[in-house]
Amino acid sequence: MRVRAVVSLKAEFRLDDLLNAAGVARSTFFYHQAKLHSPDPHADLKAAITEVFTLNRGRYGHRRVHRALLNNGWQVAKKTVLKLMRQLRLVCQVRRRRRYVSHRGDIGLVAPNLLNREFAATGPNQKWVTDVTEFRVGEDKLYLSPIMDLFDRQIIAYAMGRSPNLTLTNSPLRDALATLPTGHTPLVHSDQGFQYQHRSWRRLLADAGATQSMSRKGNCYDNAMMENFFGHLKEEAFHHTTFTSLDALETAITDPLVQQPPHLRNAQGPEPGAIPGPGPCRVGSYPVSPTNGDQFRIRRGLRHVRSAGFRRCVTAAASPRHHSPF
User: Fold this and answer.
1) Residues spanned by the domain of 309
2) Could you report the per-residue pLDDT of 136-187, keeping only the tens digit for each?
3) Which has fewest Cβ within 10 Å: 1, 19, 172, 244?
């Protein structure tokens, strides 16, 4: 752009003054000036891209334009198509897919950030964190809402559903609170999603004597442990697997948990810098044995889980939390 500006002003000012003002070296200017008058090597390709884009009424992005070009006999890289479409300012008119965002504004009460990124806990049931994440299979969506105890980084309850409604978040909270021993009043931390501002969520916490804490608006680092869990879970169990339906995905995520080996149990909780071993879900007393197949690690502070996912906690026969091997 600066070279074009210098070319347009050459007739009115000295070239040296223009180059000094533009900050362009003399050799660089003449090199790009020569290129301005050379034929465009991508002229035919740009015409083909514009034709495909126009024929499809602006509904094709660079991926579909690239596929159409390949079908028409062109040999071109997808990134080249993307670069040329940007140069031509051809933008797909179809609305872009949005990631799931639970924040709907201040529709209820927003609790202060009492957790304050202090993710260490000296005992169970002191600090819980929770959030909602979204899985996509085609145009369908599946939502997961787990609750993690920061003492041993275990998922103590969770629920899955096709909608991120109040039942999705309240159900695991109700299950987790039902297993609390007498006198345990955890700090429950979440983001500012509408589910956590709702009076039903606050009533469940108040009835159990628990304290509510919320991340600051738009600050995912305040709930870093839960975000880290979601990141590793999706990377190692979802992103590299093709699912044909939500039922297949839900079946994979609800596979059994891996039992923690006895020699890795630590009654004092995980030592600083240690990676806790695999452990069962601590809601309920469902016996789970190690299974065959590949296992993946939810790193640092998270448990080992089978690559297929983990089982929904069984709460019907829930035993008191103080019977946990931790």
Assistant:
1) 127-323
2) 988 889 999 999 999 988 888 889 999 999 999 999 999 999 999 999 999 9
3) 1
